[in-house]
Design goal:
The structure is a homodimer.
Chain A lengths: L20 H8 L3 E5 L2 E4 L1 H20 L3 E2 L5 E3 H7 L1 H4 L4 E4 L6 E3 L4 H11 L8 E10 L14 E11 L2 H21 L4 E7 L7 E8 L5 E6 L5 E3 L20 E16 L1 H5 L4 E2 L5 E2 L2 E8 H12 L16 E5 L5 H16 L4 E4 L5 H11 L3 E5 L1 H6 L2 E5 L5 E4 L2 H9 L2
Parallel strand pairs in A: 3-7, 17-18, 17-19
Antiparallel strand pairs in A: 1-2, 4-6, 5-6, 7-8, 8-16, 9-10, 10-13, 11-12, 11-13, 13-16, 14-15, 19-20, 20-21
Helix pairs in contact in A: 1-8, 2-6, 2-8
Amino acid sequence: MKQSHLFTKTRREVPSDEVAKNAQLLIRAGFVHKEMAGVYSMLPLGLRTLRKIEAIVREEMDGIGAQETRMATLHPSEPWKMTGGWDGVDVLFKLQSRTEKEYAIGQSEEEIVTPIVGEYARSYKELPLMVYQIGQKYRDELRAKSGIMRGREFGMKDMYSFHTSQEDFDRFYAIAKEAYLRVYTRTGLVAKVTEASGGSFSEKISYEFMVLTDAGEDTILYCSACDYCTNVEVAGDLKEGENCPKCGGSKLTKAVASEVGNVFDLGQRYPKALNYTYKAEDGSDYYPIMGCYGIGTTRLMGVAVETFADEKGMVWPKSIAPAQVHLIELSGGDAAVKAKADELYADLMKAGVEVLYDERDMRAGEKFADSDLIGIPLRVVVGKKTIETGQFECVRRQTGESFLLPDAAAITKDALYV
Amino acid sequence: MKQSHLFTKTRREVPSDEVAKNAQLLIRAGFVHKEMAGVYSMLPLGLRTLRKIEAIVREEMDGIGAQETRMATLHPSEPWKMTGGWDGVDVLFKLQSRTEKEYAIGQSEEEIVTPIVGEYARSYKELPLMVYQIGQKYRDELRAKSGIMRGREFGMKDMYSFHTSQEDFDRFYAIAKEAYLRVYTRTGLVAKVTEASGGSFSEKISYEFMVLTDAGEDTILYCSACDYCTNVEVAGDLKEGENCPKCGGSKLTKAVASEVGNVFDLGQRYPKALNYTYKAEDGSDYYPIMGCYGIGTTRLMGVAVETFADEKGMVWPKSIAPAQVHLIELSGGDAAVKAKADELYADLMKAGVEVLYDERDMRAGEKFADSDLIGIPLRVVVGKKTIETGQFECVRRQTGESFLLPDAAAITKDALYV
């Protein structure tokens, strides 16, 4: 993608109405546009990153046998009234309508997915069953000051699972947990899992996936020897430095973290409220056990910004960067340099490398400042020196490490595989 | 994808509350789930087809230089009040909120895209500019009886263009028109372009893309010698069989058609209402000329069902089918047949062919009926005869033509290229 073609531009000044670092940087770099508090449009660079996050989440959900759908966001009121959510869920947006029908817009999809699955999975032979979608959710939040980390409209992957027993839910939860941890690892983040209360969704236990980041709203205690982790809010008298209450093999470490995923053991609440039973092997009808698994995709994007940014701008992990290479041409009007940069651009594109090509007629300092702000992992500079030495100057955004590479093949290898 | 893994099932009975053929077939085949009139969830097979349509639309929009975004669907009321749409657009859904803020959900995005583009394209040098998105739209329709062809929630690609002159709009419109026609051709449809009045969006001229289909709501007159086409509603005294008023070279043909895309020449209405001006070469400030270009993606899916279905079920063009091959195993418990089918499935997957593999323990008649209903272009049957002859029996869904192919390579070639 040529940078002159990109309709967004960077800006130096910090937006005055944003306190969250993620929103400040994403707006300055032209990744998102703020429509109002808690509502952002994704602009071309932001959409590229978000779609990479979505693709990683999709691969991991497909990998554990979940089936992708795209459920309606405009909801009838009837199932919400049956579950008690119509009056009980305070963040549920309701719509005014010209007809007598009442509608809500989706803040979660239990009221839609349960009847769908209930229509098809009538026998124990069809269970367990896992269904998911990736899309927009809407919540009537009273306050929204965390940029894309907590929005009134936001992107979410929500998965729902249906089981014939608590044991089977537990079995699948262990599989889903590993898939979730792979999602975070693949996006460059480090996550721990805590147990917490289920909030308005459930009276049962829930699990929170906490990413270690200084921007987090939570404080956790975790053990490095086993998978023990707890939110300090529910930790009672436990303190940092004490022995792990689970394995005893290590002392507890305290860390600030941000919730980027959760699992709710919903029990039989929704199948009961929505009259979904399956026929068991003994011929009787039972309500399935249900689980709900969320990952905020836009939230994950915001957490990645907060976690990796430095004083110069954003720093994207390669897996979710809007491009792998930021190619910067410093021709100053020199036709040979321009031709060399154009050639490298074409070669990298041909090799499947995603390139943002800054071929704008601007000073080197401005181009470098934009490049630092946008945060693409590998910067490759083509200038007069490139013609003299036959080497391309490369700089890693994350470490500042600079090195020379001789050709497109070497750059491709670095950008795609190293 | 193994059919036993797919959580949806086909059903024989026609849903009693659907009059539209597209909804009847899509529900019976398990492609969509009806939530209420005009609102459908996309189930795994339906989502596969919809994403293929989206990918074709995306390629064609990218190809004419438009930049993809994902704009907010939760809209603040302010821009809607500035344009008059808050009170003037009757299908606009408004939300009840816990705060004092007023919101709408997007039925079109002029109120969002104009300020976004206005923030970045401040000079004539940045224009023309084309921005698009593919996503959900919401309209408070009084009636919704056409299945996924006219929904209260539906999928749409909406593009917006901004120009410094009417001539430049006209130039780009001609390019966009060709791209639209390619979208329809690639999805197997035949489209004509009519001129019509702009409806509530505009006082200016608009263009409608009409696909020839017996299920259409409109009647058009078109010339086969030139691109003349008109809706009979605005055709005055013109009649079928008369000479084309544009080229005179052929007689007019009458046809029933369905609108699957439109273009509105919005003039300066939205930039004026939303205070977006650019600096021209002469240093003065002007309002850009704006165009809006829509393709209903779910509507296109519905039209494809209506156009190609026969008495046995749906018939998908290869480009938008949920899979290219429907592999049917008729082992009846014979291990050699099962092994042969498994092997072919693995080989086709490896070659990049999308396969729905019916390995369920069911009678041949049921499997064939399901296959006819689902409508995948090429059916490949593996039975006892396959072991004897070493040949795979293939049947084209569209024509019923049957033929033998010797191996996975020949089937791959047929499925991917022929």
